[in-house]
């Protein structure tokens, strides 16, 4: 009978004997692997033998587990010049470890030892656990990872072991079936490590992330420069918030590119796993991980700040915030609190693998604040839509304005980060569509900078106006007089109105005239929304006079809106 057939037979027997939870009278000195129960010493020998067998399959290695108990490794070729006697594998036994490692490279030797140590630790954990009541799948060492008792019909996950050659930050999945036995595949107890071993899928993910993040940076940096180059833009509060948000996105994308290239990509292309950055866990790698986590958190808090500020203006258009200091503190300072707490706990409890492996429930220390910011943004957008719907009923004679305002509200989705909800649910590893989900996730999480830069800078009519005033060449391609809709500011005591005009070049109008026009073809969604909100908050308005004009006929614009409608 061939070795593989023997192993398959043992797996089936072990699945029957070790798959179900044993009564609470089970001996507390026995450890369980996929083949059954053994004492600590025998368990260590067998698990070390199987670590060798599983880590280096079909690689021409000269050692195989000796049957029937697989507690020893034997040479397949007895004519070798080395000692052909069986080896009792034990990483703590120098002689035995040297004989095993003589058949491996230094990298493979270290990975084999790490697997043996992980198996021994699993056995110790099993001995310390109390047997739960009720029918459960048995705690087990599956050859790579340790699994606790599981309820029938549940799935257990574990971080990818670091001693796998291309192990990354995914998870292995083991399913406990409805009859309280671990799932079998081809008659063998099975754990799905697909997410840990699919090197090409990880490489594609790295390429997508780096490419899309680079495009975001290429658009965000010029947008920040444009905002900072025009005083009329820079003195506006909402533009200052945009600058901080864009800066946060830019820094986070830079950190993400460095992380994926210096840690993930290096791990995938490094032939010696024990020489990879993730395995060596240097201090700079931990610092890079800290920066990536912190800057990602600042993105969520700045999305909250953007949503809060716009909501405040729309709900109370004539009392805008007088200072942005508290928002600056919230955007940059609040994330640091949660990330520092997480980092101190990580250093003390799981300071390995550049913090790339999941920290379990402690990950909620940083996830919870980020999710709260997202849900708050949902609330802001819902209330903004409520205000607009109210306007739809209050001004039935101006349907086109409100269609435009509703479109502007939906254009706020990337500013508030609500596109993150598209990938908030991660399908289990191994189910159809999981790999496609991962690709969509990479694009979705890296493309936010592209959309906010285009919508709130490059396609923004106010920015276009400033560019035309500074450089008339920007309007040369539009001097044919294409009709566009513009928002004209208050003049001679009249309220803001919508009119259809023919766009003229900068040379045909004075700077003052040009400054009074906001091209709606590229209008900022915030500006459109605030105009509609002012209709709601203006007391006793009439069509013939402006509810916000004073006795001299000039409009009373809030401090944050010096020359045109803003938000």
Automatic annotation (TrEMBL):
It is found in: Cell membrane. Residues 494-511, 538-549 have a biased composition (Low complexity). Its main location: membrane. It comes from the Eukaryota. Residues 482-512, 531-567 are annotated as: Disordered. Residues 122-200, 205-460 form the G-protein coupled receptors family 2 profile domain. Pfam families: 7tm_2, HRM. Gene3D superfamilies: GPCR, family 2, extracellular hormone receptor domain, Rhodopsin 7-helix transmembrane proteins. GO terms for molecular function: G protein-coupled peptide receptor activity. The chain crosses the membrane at residues 201-229, 241-263, 283-303, 324-344, 364-388, 408-427, 439-459. Keywords: Cell membrane, G-protein coupled receptor, Glycoprotein, Membrane, Receptor, Transducer, Transmembrane, Transmembrane helix. It is a multi-pass membrane protein. GO terms for cellular component: plasma membrane. One of its GO terms (biological process) is adenylate cyclase-modulating G protein-coupled receptor signaling pathway. PANTHER family: G-PROTEIN COUPLED RECEPTOR SEB-2, PDF RECEPTOR-LIKE PROTEIN-RELATED. Belongs to the G-protein coupled receptor 2 family. This is G-protein coupled receptors family 2 profile 2 domain-containing protein. It comes from Capitella teleta (Polychaete worm).
């Amino acid at each position: 009978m061939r070795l593989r057939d023997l192993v398959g037979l043992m797996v089936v027997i072990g699945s029957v004997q070790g798959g179900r939870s044993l009564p609470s009278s089970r001996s507390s000195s026995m450890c369980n692997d996929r083949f059954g129960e053994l004492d600590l010493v025998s368990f260590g020998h067998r698990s070390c033998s199987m670590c060798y067998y599983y880590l280096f399959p079909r690689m021409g290695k000269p050692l195989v587990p000796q049957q029937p108990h697989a507690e020893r490794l034997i040479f397949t070729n007895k004519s070798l010049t080395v000692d052909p006697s069986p080896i009792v594998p034990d990483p703590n036994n120098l002689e035995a470890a040297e004989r095993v490692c003589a058949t491996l490279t230094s990298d493979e030797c270290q990975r084999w030892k790490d697997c043996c140590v992980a198996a021994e630790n699993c056995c110790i954990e099993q001995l310390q656990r109390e047997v739960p009541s009720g029918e459960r799948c048995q705690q087990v060492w599956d050859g790579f990872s340790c699994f606790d008792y599981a309820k029938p019909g549940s799935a257990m996950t574990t971080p990818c072991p670091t001693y796998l050659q291309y192990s990354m930050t995914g998870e292995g999945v083991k399913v406990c079936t409805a009859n309280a036995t671990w799932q079998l595949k081809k008659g063998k107890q099975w754990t799905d490590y697909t997410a840990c071993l699919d090197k090409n899928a990880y490489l594609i993910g790295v390429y997508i992330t780096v490419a899309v993040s680079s495009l975001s940076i290429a658009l965000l940096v010029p947008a920040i420069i444009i905002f900072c180059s025009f005083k009329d833009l820079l003195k506006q509060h909402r533009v200052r918030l945009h600058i901080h948000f864009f800066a946060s996105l830019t820094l986070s994308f830079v950190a993400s590119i460095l992380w994926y290239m210096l840690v993930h990509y290096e791990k995938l292309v490094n032939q010696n796993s024990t020489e990879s950055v993730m395995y060596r866990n240097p201090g700079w790698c931990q610092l890079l991980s800290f920066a990536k986590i912190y800057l990602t958190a600042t993105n969520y808090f700045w999305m909250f700040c953007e949503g809060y500020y716009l909501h405040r203006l729309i709900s109370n258009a004539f009392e805008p915030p007088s200072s942005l200091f508290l928002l600056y503190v919230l955007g940059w300072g609040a994330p640091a609190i949660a990330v520092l707490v997480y980092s101190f706990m990580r250093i003390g409890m799981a300071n390995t693998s550049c913090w790339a492996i999941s920290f379990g429930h402690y990950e909620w220390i940083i996830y919870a604040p980020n999710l709260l910011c997202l849900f708050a943004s949902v609330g802001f957008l819902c209330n903004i839509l409520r205000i607009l719907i109210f306007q739809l009923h209050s001004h039935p004679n101006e349907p086109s304005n409100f269609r435009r305002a509703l479109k502007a509200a939906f254009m706020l989705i990337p500013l508030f980060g609500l596109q993150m909800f598209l990938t908030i649910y991660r399908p289990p590893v191994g189910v159809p569509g999981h790999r496609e989900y991962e690709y969509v996730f990479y694009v979705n999480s890296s493309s936010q900078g592209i959309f906010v830069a285009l919508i709130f800078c490059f396609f923004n009519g106010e920015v276009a106006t400033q560019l035309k005033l500074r450089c008339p060449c920007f309007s040369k391609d539009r001097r044919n007089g294409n009709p566009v809709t513009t928002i004209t500011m208050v003049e001679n005591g009249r309220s803001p109105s919508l009119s259809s005009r023919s766009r003229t070049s900068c040379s045909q109008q004075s700077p003052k005239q040009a400054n009074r026009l906001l091209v709606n073809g590229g209008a900022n969604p915030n500006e459109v929304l605030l105009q509609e909100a002012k209709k709601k908050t203006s007391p006793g308005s009439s069509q013939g006079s402006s509810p916000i004009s004073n006795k001299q006929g000039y409009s009373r614009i809030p401090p944050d809106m010096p020359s045109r409608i803003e938000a």
